Amino acid sequence: MMKSKADEEDYWNSSKFKAFTFDDEDDEFSRLKESKQAVNSIRRLVEEDDDEDDVEKVSWSGEPVGSISWSVRETAASNQRTDREPTFPKINTDTPTLSKSNSGYSLSSLFKGKTKGGNFQSFNDCESELHCMNEWMNDDWSPEETIQRMQQGKAFSLEKFRSLQDKLLLLDFAVSAHDGNVITAVLIYLKRTLGKEVLFRELESRQTALRHLIQYLTETRDQRLLLELLRSLCRTGPCTTGREHLSITDENKRRDFLKSCLSLPFSPEDSAHVQDHFTLLERQIIIEATDRQAERGGKVEIFQKFPRRASILNMPLVTTLYYCCFYHYTEPEGTYSSSLNIRQTFKISEKQYFVTALAARAKLKAWSDVDALFTSRNWLGFTRKKSPLSFQRVVDILQKNSAPTQVLQDYVALVDDAELRISLAQKHKCHDIVINTYRDLKDRQLLLGYRGKVERGSAEERKIDELLNNPRRRWK
Amino acid sequence: MAHSARRDSPELPDFSLLKRLARDQLVYLLEQLPGKKDLFIEADLMSPLDRIANVSTLKEHEVDKLYKVEYKPITSTSDQLCFLIRPRIKTVKWICDVANADKATGKFRRYKIIFTPQKFYACEAVLEEQGIFGDVTTDEWAFYLLPLDDDIISLELPEFFRDNFLAGDQRWVRTAGSALHLLHSLYGPFSKVYGIGRCSKMAYESWREQVAEGEQRTRQAEIGRVFLIDRDVDFVTPLCSQVVYEGLVDDIFRIKCGCVEFGPDVTSDKSVKVMLNSQDKVFNEIRNEHFSNVFGFLSQKARNLQTAYDKRRGMDIKQMKTFVSEELKGLKQEHRLLSLHIGASESIMKKKTKQDFQELLKTEHSLLEGFEIRECISFIEEHINRQVSMIQSLRLLCLLSITENGLMPKDYRSLKAQYLQSYGVDHLLTFANLRHLGLLVEQQPGETLTVMESKVGKLVNDKTAGKLTDAFSSLARKSNFRALSRRLNLVPKSGEEYDLRVPRDMAYIFSGAYVPLSCKLIEQVLERDGWTGLEEVTKLLNGNEFAVTGSNGADSKAKNDAQRIILVMFLGGCTFSEISALRFLGREKGYKFIVVATAITNSSRLLESLLDNHV
């Protein structure tokens, strides 16, 4: 504790990660503050003749605008042909290899391939190519060649692939090309030209294509077809219903929808969650209606003192519990809005209930309620403070709800670990606890050191002095 | 900052060329619609556009007014509208609405859509469906790569991660291949490509095909080797709290497109936007440092600055004149930067102290070590009970699941139930997504699964069996983190001293507690020039590794520095901590790494992209 500064720095920089702590405000922080002061003291000088623009702008040095001709030259240069032999080997991307279709005669060599990245393909270019292509359109591009052309952004037509076999061949080649853009394009064509039943049936064994279709339908918000597709695949899990559910904004409709969901084949675990969700929404609708009325009526004190910030509808369970602990804490267990009732109905864990009630009552500064939460009686009728949460956390929660020192003190004192207790006590200025702990540790040095940290002439200082001056005390 | 840097590190190629190319192509495309026009820009393209062009560039090419795409009816009165957008169906639909509304009121305008980096057939299908096809002209702006810094290039495609890994949509595979192709033709030819992951393999194939399709010129290679890695190979690293300065700044203030906005809590004045890159001399020296070293550095720097200013005392007029003209400007610049970063550090300290960062880190380290798991679980539980940050809780749950190879069924159910109670049942969808990705799963007794699979397999035909295997494999997807960690020595023995000031390995980016798996793989593969000897590791990572040599690679080997310039492409995003680790590795081994990422990510961005509680 009393290491010299240099020692401490050494310690800081040498040991493993435990050494660095974000909690330690004293040390690094003060160093930082020093540097800040140093820098700030210079400020005046700087501001004397500050040409803002000069200093403010820190930007990437962009080169002057290159001319278009420069760019065109650059592209032209990159087009100088060398050898065309493949420089890198193909690797297996674990898709089933497809039988090449037998229309071996390729026309692609007749058209000069356009590189995608380099050349600027203007609309006019496309048009002329399209025109040119039309001449060849009655031809027989194989499914494979068509996919290749699609990948390269060349003109193509899918209309002539009318047999199911051709369509599927098209799809399979698209999938094996790993180009999602092309896969989706083919799927759009299949969706248009095939009955749903046929399409869905074929997709069942084509997972990659299936996922592309799901994504496409999601993106185009084609809810109806998406649901049909997922239902046909027996995927009634959360993805299907969840999306539909979220699109319903009216709470009553939402409740009815949830009710209809209860019969769906969710996993047993998820169906319990959906059931809870339904019950909760039902409950929230009732509470909201009653409370809104009570608030408007202006007769219930708590709503006047702490107006509700938002409606409780669609809030998570814990938020609802907090709300009930805040506004309806004293209600008997029989009412819908009673916090105990919520706890019972949704089987909220002891710890969860405790944390939430603690925060809510502390926020209201209802310290007696807080106190009561901890109090348990043993069989002899003695009371003692018990908590499912470590007292360190309790202090943290209370402090975040701006509990006064007198309240904090009670709970800091209950922290078991002496070191932790002292650091918490110091942090929250619970002087008595620090003093008592040092006294119990019989550490005169520390006590003496602490004397400098309490206010001059305060009761704490007097207490320390008394202890220090008491000749009967034994110190380490 | 005493790094045992090797002095023979090669120079990085100049990537400003990429910006110039992109700008010139944009100008060319704008000129395709001659005359005055209003330009609508998609929100997430604004910052990237800012990095390569400015308003005056646009004005020079007859752009009159600039608008952000907001999915609302437009107010523009121009008779020519140009839309600069990502190829998204939602945006195209909106443009159709605009055009159809004009039609309804008998207003005639010309429309042009510029898709970047490429257009998708699905977007054109929307134009067709809405009866707009032919009324608009479309173009592609091949703006694949945005250099964010000397050694960072981003595709600025955050949706890559979700689309590819969660939805299984391969629309961006070719984009990745094209980006690689562009780099290859400007800075290649590459001689060696390594990679791991399904998407990496596909991107490699797409690139290879594009190389074969196109023509190429022979030139002196500037980049010799390439490493492709899928984000789902390593989820642990991006889920850890970042403690290196640049990563920490990203975690707290969110760096967007190389730029961060510091609020009044940092500047104690109005908010400022600051570019964070190697041009910022102060930042450049602390970006890769562990946060605990940053204070020391900043105070030293402040002292130096003071001394430099003090020099002016006792100067005569002439000396003062030189001082003002030569030094003052630099000093002022430094002064401004210094106070910014001091302010930022202060604010970071405050925020972290408030949220029990120390305890959080302790929990993370325990999880990485596989130590005191029950304590970790109850820490996470309290986190959830208290409704502390929803993302933070999710992050810890995922970290617990990956490091433990899934949660025990009892824990999984209880934590999930509590999570849903605290943050809403809507998160059922989130859990489904996380399970699908293998980020948060229930432990499955492995044997039961395979036995069941083969039994069922015998009963049904092949097709269905294939489907079953698919279903099972997503359940059985294990992270095997513990085994990997042992094999690759990712978690140093606890209790060992670790000097964060003089880091001895990449673990320093996580306070000496963990060597990032992604970077460790890169190190090992480069060292072995392939995957030989790493068979066990790749098996644990579900395979999909490759190492290929190009025909031009064999002879030119070791001839030039290019072999030591290594391009690492992260498919699905990369964190600043990983970049810091690679910079460290580069200094140690005399490499220079260029990081190409589909986007810069961190734990929050990664998890936010998997949420589904919004429509």
UniProtKB/TrEMBL annotation, chain A:
GO biological process, one term: vacuolar transport
Coiled coil segments of this chain: none
The UniProt record lists the keyword Protease: no
Region of interest (Disordered), residue spans: 74-96
Subcellular location: Cytoplasmic vesicle; Early endosome; Late endosome
Gene Ontology, cellular component aspect: early endosome; late endosome
Keywords: Cytoplasmic vesicle, Endosome
InterPro entries, A to Z: Spe-39, Vps16_C_sf
Name of the protein described by the UniProt record: Spermatogenesis-defective protein 39 homolog
Species of provenance: Dicentrarchus labrax
Organism lineage string: Eukaryota, Metazoa, Chordata, Craniata, Vertebrata
UniProtKB/TrEMBL annotation, chain B:
GO biological process: protein transport; vesicle-mediated transport
Subcellular location: Late endosome membrane; Lysosome membrane
A Pfam family this chain is assigned to: Sec1
Protein keywords: Protein transport, Transport
Highest taxon, organism lineage: Eukaryota
First-listed, main subcellular location of the protein, grouped into a coarse class: membrane
Name of the protein in its database record: VPS33B late endosome and lysosome associated
Organism whose genome encodes this protein: Dicentrarchus labrax (European seabass)
